[in-house]
Amino acid sequence: MTVNAHEIGNKALASMGILLSMGTGFWSSTVFPGAPASAVACLGSPYNTTAEPDTNGRGVQVSNPGMLIENKTVDCGRVSSLFDKNSADTRWVEVGWYEDQNVYVCIPSTTNPWRLAFASLDGVNSCFIPSGGIGEGTDGFKVHDDNQDGIWKFSHDATNFWNSPDMGTFVTGTPISNGERVGTSDPAHSDFNGLKRMNSSQVFVNWSGTHERFTSDDPDYKLCIHSATHVEVKLNSNPC
Amino acid sequence: MLGGLMKSTHTIPTGARRAAILVIAFAIGAALGGLTLFEWNPATPLGDRELPGDTRSLRTLFDTTQPLMTDGGSQTTLAGAESAAGYEVPTPDTAVASFLQLKAPEIWFSANSREVGLRYGNNLVIMYSPWPRGKDPGKTYELQATQFHAGYTTILNGNPAWVVPKDSQEPGFPEVDVVHTSVGSVEATFFGQMPLDALLLLASSL
Known about the structure:
heterodimer; A: eight-stranded antiparallel beta sheet; eight-stranded antiparallel beta sheet; 16 strands; B: alpha+beta; 6 helices; 29% helix; globular
């Protein structure tokens, strides 16, 4: 017998009148996934090439010079981003840029690089909906919860462009850099120069002990660690 | 029935509460067919799109061949985890866990995040983390249910809780039933591959 836990739980609780506090107030730039998008040909887990330092932080930043932004042809999707993530990978915040041909949840499709701000809490998500693209170049990105109130602030250069929903007890995590692509024809070239994490004194300090994260799985791209604060994701054919 | 009994349990003595919990557990077991309690729901794909970023499925939490923690956290004892984390880790009632045939848990601790994790075979994972100073758990859960448009808030054994049933935000999100509850200064987040009522029963037995 297969038990539908969802139905049983809801019926049992609803019948006892337990519940329920779901208000409606919200800020306009936050959007929640609605109906699933139409099916596309680029399904399957993305490839990721990732690095992390040896110490956690209440924020992660790349600046001076920053994160490379490139406008290339993308058939499925690609992301260049920084994370802070909890120990079981169930909670994270992510900032950077992306291009999407309708393969990602929450964020809209694009034809050029757009800002990415994403928050995930134990299986449910929230994201920033950009109003337009960003130009190529090398820019600063940052996400942090300096005062440990559960609200993570997302910045592009000097602009704070989004705040996360309340992430509760998630106020610190492992900083990660991520070069990602969804299709085998998509590019994943990424460059993060000037990597920092926020320490418990609310000061951004340089990454140290930088190493490849074990989840890296792209067969065609590899991590090139130029220094503890500078990592690049490059095609295998290009020397590090 | 379940909700009503849960609501009343926080006002009665511990011995009687345990007995009441067991009665509820047996009732659930009988209603669902005893050992079929843990028949899994069919795997549900993540809608038809991907999460951006280096992520893993919530279902991998239950894969005992993979580490529960990916940041260097490692297995220890409950006493060792509590000592290192600096807070008491409330665990489900042993009689309820035994009735539900849960395996003895692996105990995990991460020095990076001060999170503690308990994994009971491939049915249940509980993650613990301390509340930041000044946060009100009940108000936080109400805000989160609203902001994420998922689940509902309630009280479990006198403790505030945010219940997020599988697929409650959209198909695939979350992939499994999730129950957050707060005991003292610690949040316990339950991830279950079992009927939601059983997960609520465990969460209310802390």
